[in-house]
Amino acid sequence: MNRSLAVALVLLLGLPTTARADEAPPPTMADVLEASTPADWRRPAPEDTLYLELATGRVVIELAAAFAPKHVAQIRALANAKYYDGLAIVRVQENYVVQWGDPDAADAEKRRSTGDQPRTLAAEFARPIEGAPAFARLADGDVYAPEVGHSQGFPVARDPKQGTTWLAHCYGMLGAGRDDAADSGGGTELYVVIGHAPRHLDRNVTLVGRVLTGMEHLSTLPRGSAAMGFHEKAEQRVPIRAIRLANEVPAAERSALEVFRTDTAAFQRLVESRRNRREPWFLDPTGRIDLCNVPVPVRAAKD
Amino acid sequence: MNRSLAVALVLLLGLPTTARADEAPPPTMADVLEASTPADWRRPAPEDTLYLELATGRVVIELAAAFAPKHVAQIRALANAKYYDGLAIVRVQENYVVQWGDPDAADAEKRRSTGDQPRTLAAEFARPIEGAPAFARLADGDVYAPEVGHSQGFPVARDPKQGTTWLAHCYGMLGAGRDDAADSGGGTELYVVIGHAPRHLDRNVTLVGRVLTGMEHLSTLPRGSAAMGFHEKAEQRVPIRAIRLANEVPAAERSALEVFRTDTAAFQRLVESRRNRREPWFLDPTGRIDLCNVPVPVRAAKD
To answer: Is the pTM of this model over 0.90?
Structure first.
């Protein structure tokens, strides 16, 4: 049977086109990754790559300068000034966040100096769509925002009527904690989402990046027993050995990683492979996906 | 100023009605719980309450007999036969699931006997809406299903056209693992969701209950290093001391818990308090909520 006859029959009979014996089944994610080319991957810039060093290992974070430029500049400056070194994880809340900073932050006399850096910054909850990085929109909608998808590897939401776009609180996203005032944050306190996406935090707090590897060093930490998961005793806090930008670390000590691009046809195939699961285990391929269930793969760089 | 004049001014000036000094602001969740009465809470039936006993403590699970009656009957029988005692957590996958069962399950000669119980059951992926427990529908829609909400404290989805309803894969839900065939599960392998809701598993696998307390004993476990988070070595597995139904445990050793009812006006107020966050920290109350972000509170019973 030739192809146009097959298509005509499909249209006539309503058969799924995937049932044609002369066509390969739709690719799974493993197939998409296997077929990917070097151009489908990118290396995060060292100045956008942050290493959180804990006793158990390294957490690698990619910063989102296009969405929170002032906060990212501040975090770079604080890291370079070794502001974070010796501070601690002070909060681990089940199904919510891990948070670190200066345990003495509330005490103006004891807290660590931010040096030349301001202690707080204006909020960067959202930015204009105009001039924003390429946006790969998801097809299946969202409970919280008019549009969702990915920009530069980050999960993002958009409101075309308002002309704004913002990073979304998915698992593994990094944010800058604040007090009640919008401009009371500034990168001295940071948190990572370790539970179901708390999307109600979107546009309430400035997100600044995403964990690429090492989530398990945060997600497995003992939960804090005080309100909101704060640790009650100083000895329960987890010390931060150091936070460094990759470009401040000797080349031999860097984590050489590649991130799957989200502005490619290959990424569209990956999303489709997750919207419709074709692995043998899946009996119902689902046909839909929500923003925070889309994986953006990370792998060791191949030199 | 009298009330009608105030209302007139509000209409005229477009002031938010919550700014009226003569009306209390909408309640927060803390307010809703504070104002709740004993009738807003229920005690899970002991025969629906499962204790998973680990070295670090107890995980309390409520079984969903209305949604998976055969699987729940099987799990009760296996627990009463002490089938699970001495088995192990064999898989801990980051941002996904913790799974336990018989490490020798694949070896027909070495695996533990299920006694009089069948090893596998027909799938219970969904059930008819007709005869299902009361459904409290959420207002804001869902990416995966036509309708979502809560029944008997469990997150559920519904398809009115198909006339079916099913438990949804939110954080803390308990499911019965299976192999590729729909009827290859049966309660000998169980898993709990420890990450962002993997809703693509809905209607692909039988859910059987929800963790009420003790999630941290599962979510903080070291991740397995083999594919899909399986542990590579036997010594990495986490032993299961016992799994018991509460009605098989002496009364003094039971966990006396109460769960917030989901078929009440108080629950509607709780949902509204989470759709529109009024705590001082929130600058944008959000106005929407997704299924798996709705908390169903659990507290120690007050005797």
So the answer is: yes
